[in-house]
Design goal:
The protein has 21 helices and 25 strands. With 704 residues, the chain is of the alpha+beta class. It starts with 38 loop residues before the first helix and ends in a 22-residue tail after the last strand.
Length: 704
Amino acid sequence: MESLYDEFGNYIGPELSDSDQEEPHDEGDGVIESEGPGGDDEDMEDAAAGDEDEEGGPIGGGQVVLAEDKKYYPSADEVYGADTETLVMEEDAQPLEVPIIAPVKDKKHERLLAEPLRSTFTPEFLAALMTNGELVRHVAVVGALHHGKTSVMDMLVEQTHDLPAAAKHHLGFTDTRLDEQARRMSIKMVPMSLVMEGGSGKSYLLNLMDCPGHANFNDEVTAAMRLADGVLLVVDALEGVMAVTERAVRQAVAEGLAVTLLISKVDRLILELKLPPADAYYKLKHTIEEVNKTLLEAAGVVPGSDEAAALVLDPLRGNVAFSSAQYGYSFTLSSFAGLYSEVFGEGKGAAGRFDPYELARRLWGDVWYYPDTRTFRRKPGPGAERSFVKFVLEPLYKLTSTVISEHPKTVERALAELGVALKPSQYNQDVKPLLKDVCRAVFGGASGLVDLLVAHVPSAKRATAEKVTRHYSGPLDPDSLLAKCMLEAAPRGPLVFHVAKLYPKQDGRAFDALGRIVSGTLRPGDRVRVLGEGYTPEDEEDSAAAEVTNVWVYQARYRLPVSRATAGNLVLVEGLDAVVARTATVVAEAFDSEEVHIFRPLRFQTLSVVKIATEPLNPSELPKMVEGLRRVGKSYPLVSTKVEESGEHTVLGTGELYLDSVMKDLREMYAEVEVKVADPVVSFCETVVETSSLKCFAESPNKR
């Protein structure tokens, strides 16, 4: 086939027809000529028609439409209407890891109950006991770390509440915080109000405050002792007196509180040390002597004096109890003697019955029992056994060994001799739960411990006068109506409420105030005046008005609302946190008949000497961190924050564990920001206290 073009690209093919020729162009201006008259107008009309098609209808012909001009989705006005405000965000303005609509954060730092537990008492009965101050006791449960304070509280909670079976294993009812349960140690002081019966069947209201045992959290113990009228000192039977135990005794003596002793974990002497009963007695006796030595030294009393006799702890006086919270029993000498009277004295006529008190006063000390003559003597002899070993420890050892090593049928026969029967299904349990059920069935409730607290801790009504005398900063004029009502804990007097501790709500943004009503009656809706720690009658700047929105009885994991609370009671109040820093004195807003002074701030036994520097990871979140530090100061009484000259924020605490807990709360609950922390620094200073008796010389490096 011949080519239609030559070597130079010229067309050499056949001649083209007229229809194939190109239309002539005006080379001068490059404008396309119209094919007929009115061509320009027709082109403009076609362009206008194309525009109308683009806006109002489908585009016809072969007109080109750019991709950005195409309409794929309806506009917001078409979907939502012209009255809806539309926010158009630029692309990639929000990070991918941040959701467009953030979910609602449910902060949870405590394990609380939505509904109150079923208990052996009704809320109405508890409220009725609150009106009688003679039946109320305020007790701080103190002791060293892991000596069984929370376990004792669990034992009492199990005896007064209907708990699910799954919750009974390491209950930790007063360890409400999640980090407390993870660490297996108490961080905060938590009160629990329990209605319990004594040996006579009479009911009492016990406000027990479970205190931390770690030395770093001694500020919580100080707050508890400000509210308490007595101390239940818990000492491990195996470990004995520790440094924290001695500090707690000295602190209780300084506060003028009655001291009672509970020797816990008695089962460890049997199951871990495997001591013979006679050696176990000497171990218990040595522990009591060590506590008495610390108590008399703290009080500055000479041993053997009349004052020492009034302070000393002695099982014969009834202010010492023994317990094994793991296996659910506690007893005093009186309650143990009562068991003998119930089991062996019933149904045997007048000759078979005996007075439990007479047996109890022979169950401790150098008293020996002669089985041949069935008599007690002060001197040992052939065949004689020490009475405490014979009547207390040996039965306890035999009961424990029988449950652990014998067949369930043998255990059933042994319990039948004691007049105790268990369900058949209980005998098929493992050893530990079976031993716990057996001990609870044999020993019953904690009536012995209740009688101990009732007898040796003053009632709330009588102890209020001592609290006012020690801690009220104003004069107690006999002619003053306010002073008279406070000393008598008068429920009809002017309202005086002493706040000693703040507890955060679940969101960490507000606090509830725990305090003691010294005088008057507190109700929800009362208008009050809150006096801060810096208030004086001459300078009223540190005071503000507030309204009480709720009044509760604090039950650790739940709260019982009350319509009113009278003088002498401990209550949790909502609505005061905005004007309370740490402690405060609350009076009625309308009371202005005489000058009101405040209760003195807490006096701590430790100082905040460990310092860390903090700053937010994102500098723009500094205001949130500062606000979080302010809230932390409300929750931890001994924490203090400062702004150094360099501009950095420093936090001071009592130790590394204390500061670790503070920073955890700051990050997760109060500020919700990521915080950078510097290495801890210990503040250390020394000075010269007296002139040396010898001349001291020192040479400098340059021999001068």
